[in-house]
Design goal:
Layout (H helix, E strand, L loop, with lengths): L2 H15 L12 E6 L2 E7 L8 H7 L11 E6 L11 H8 L3 E6 L9 H7 L3 E3 L4 H7 L1 H9 L3 E8 L4 E3 L11 H13 L2 E4 L1 H7 L16 E5 L18 E5 L4 E3 L2 E5 L5 H11 L4 E4 L3 H9 L5 E6 L8 E2 L6 E8 L2 E7 L4
Parallel strand pairs: 3-4, 4-5, 6-13, 6-14, 8-9, 8-13, 9-10, 10-12
Antiparallel strand pairs: 1-2, 1-3, 7-15, 11-12, 14-17, 16-17
């Protein structure tokens, strides 16, 4: 691999990322076609159910006769199955590029095997370029395929002295306005947003991405209310956006609102399977402390995004203290944003 290979793969990953918020539960995939050091075609998977990255990239090449002399960089192994669209491997075999370079193997067993077929047809294949970056980009997809559950992101805000709410559960104004707007962006990027019963009750959140226009859909709103004690007057039950309330008592459906009963034994496993069955690839969990405690006890989290404000409460509900790896920190005006992962990428 040479430096220019890295650059072209970086471009493929950059294109792939444009699918964030649009392609789930599919992975984000980008593709670049290069002839004699020049990019002659580019494409990405734009929409769930739509054409794959390779199809769009090849389509964009004006002179298709150059393809057989080109290198195709694709951020995920070309699929080898009939899904919503035909196999990309067939398309590549049809044009027979000189070389195909991929970032990540497709660990979805239905789609795997593309690279082997290309190699068997005499195409030079290389795998694993910028692998870590690709695994990070598609961490939600790989969680579903490899761990059989949605990717779980915890998000909270805490004071400088480590509290995420006052003792009466009031938690308004810990993070600043910019941080809160950023959370709206994140809501557009994940498939579901979840809160526990106390957060639903005391904060009465809407869990929509109304302060960040641009993403095409609202996430599924999820609340846990085992004994169905929450008042129906809460925003979460207003039917304005798809919502689901997991409980131990009843199955019931209304407009945009599902009450789903699940067994108390292995509650979380059942809940995550149910979400996965609804095409949910990732869940952003916005509190509160009990929900974080239950999930972290079972090791059910992948990523934490925590805002740390400059002021202190002195007492209140303590923020979780979890073991993880600090990935990066950012300044959001006077808040510090820390990104943690449970396992390093
Ligand atoms: C690729 N290029 O751009 C994408 C791939 O139902 P389908 O036809 O859209 O197939 C979805 C599966 O195909 C998905 O689970 C993943 O394994 C692969 N996605 N493959 O070659 C792409 N998005
Ligand atoms: Zn494909």
């Amino acid at each position: 691999m040479q430096e220019h290979d890295r650059l072209f793969m970086q471009r493929a990953l950059e294109l792939a990322r444009l699918g964030l918020g649009y392609v789930s539960p599919n992975p984000m995939v980008g593709c670049v076609v290069v002839h004699q050091g020049c990019i002659i075609g580019e494409g990405w998977h734009r929409q769930y159910g739509g054409a794959h990255a390779e199809v769009n990239a090849i389509e964009s090449v004006a002179d298709k006769s150059l393809l057989s002399q080109s290198t195709v960089y694709v951020s995920l192994e070309p699929c080898n199955h009939w899904g919503k669209t035909p196999p990309c491997t067939d398309l590549l075999l049809q044009h027979k590029p000189k070389r195909v370079v991929i970032c990540n193997a497709d660990t979805n067993p239905k789609a795997a095997g593309g690279l082997q077929r290309l190699a068997a047809a005499g195409i030079k294949v290389e795998a694993g370029l910028l692998e870590k970056e690709g695994r990070w980009l598609n961490r939600r997809f790989f969680a579903v395929v490899e761990q059989n559950r949605p990717y779980i992101i915890f998000k909270w805000a805490q004071t400088a002295d480590g509290y995420m709410a006052r003792s009466d559960y009031s938690s308004k104004w810990i993070s600043n306005a910019y941080a809160r707007q950023l959370v709206h962006k994140w809501r557009g990027e994940e498939d579901a947003i979840m809160v526990g019963r106390n957060t639903a009750r005391y904060d009465n959140p809407q869990l929509t991405n109304r302060d960040w226009p641009g993403y095409p859909r609202q996430p599924l709103r999820v609340v846990i209310d085992r004994q169905l004690l929450l008042p129906q007057s809460l925003h979460l039950f207003d039917g304005s956006h798809p919502s689901i309330c997991y409980n131990l008592k009843e199955d019931r459906e209304a407009h945009n609102l599902i009450f789903k009963k699940i067994p108390s034994v292995d509650f979380w496993q059942h809940l995550l399977q149910d979400l996965k069955g609804r095409g949910v690839q990732s869940v952003l969990i916005e509190g509160g402390p009990q929900l974080f405690a239950q999930l972290s006890e079972l090791g059910l989290w992948d990523e934490i995004r925590v805002f740390i404000a400059p002021h202190s409460f002195g007492s209140g509900l303590a923020a979780p203290r979890l073991q993880g790896h600090l990935l990066k920190t950012e300044s959001i005006h006077d808040n510090q944003l820390q990104w943690w992962v449970q396992k390093p990428f």
